[in-house]
Amino acid sequence: MEDEPVRQAVTDDVPAVKAVTDAAYQPYIERIGVVPQPMEADHAANVAAGRVFVACEPGGDLVGLVVLEAQPDHLFLDSIAVRPDAHGRGVGRRLLQFVDAHARALGLPEVRLYTSAMMWENQEIYPKYGYELVERRVDGPYDRVHYRKRLP
């Protein structure tokens, strides 16, 4: 799977983008007490806007994705999702490496993201990839931990 490049999603990917996003975030609903925002996103609009990039298995099945939004001074990582049966196979690492490369290609000096304060796993993962904690902030029903990664 490491040889398969991350590519921009196309319209035909929308059902798989929704399925992978739902599968990745579904386990958190009970823990955080609300439906995670990525599950409520307009996936078709995000794909049409060129914001979704996907990782696929050699056979073509979509196993992971990122939703990105370029800002004037940073790349915002809106969502990252890996199909649960693909955990531990390097998909998330490959997607995070792609995010860094994409930010550099756009000439942006950093990547920013946030995660739910109740998604403890993410708070262990992001620092391993160079992200530093910026702040914890409540946005409506969401208690979020904000991170950034300055790119060399």
Write the layout of secondary structure elements.
Layout: E1 7-8, H1 14-25, H2 28-32, H3 37-40, H4 43-48, E2 52-56, E3 62-70, E4 75-82, H5 91-105, E5 110-116, H6 120-128, E6 132-139, E7 142-150
Parallel strand pairs: 4-5
Antiparallel strand pairs: 1-2, 2-3, 3-4, 5-7, 6-7
Query: Within the largest sheet, what's the order of strands?
Result: 1-2-3-4-5-7-6
Assembly form of the protein: single chain
Which structural class best describes the helix and strand composition? alpha+beta
Poorly predicted sequence stretches spanning 5 or more consecutive residues: none
Biggest sheet character: 7 strands, mixed
| Mean pLDDT across every amino acid position | 95
First-to-last CA distance: 27 Å
Q: Which percent range describes the beta-strand content? A: 25-35%
The amount of helix comes to 25-40%
Tell me the radius of gyration.
15 Å
Question: Helical stretch count?
Answer: 6
Total beta strands: 7
The ordered string of helix (H) and strand (E) elements is EHHHHEEEHEHEE
Estimate the global geometry from the Cα principal axes.
Answer: globular
Task: Jot down its keywords.
seven-stranded mixed sheet, 6 helices, 7 strands, globular, single chain, 152 residues, 32% strand, alpha+beta
How would you summarize what this structure contains?
The protein is of the alpha+beta class and 152 residues long. It has 6 helices and 7 strands.
Describe the protein's architecture and organization.
Strand 4, helix 5 and strand 5 form a beta-alpha-beta unit. The model has no long low-confidence stretch (mean pLDDT 95). The protein has helices spanning 14-25, 28-32, 37-40, 43-48, 91-105, 120-128, and strands spanning 7-8, 52-56, 62-70, 75-82, 110-116, 132-139, 142-150. With 152 residues, the protein is of the alpha+beta class. The two termini are 27 Å apart. A seven-stranded mixed sheet has the order 1-2-3-4-5-7-6.
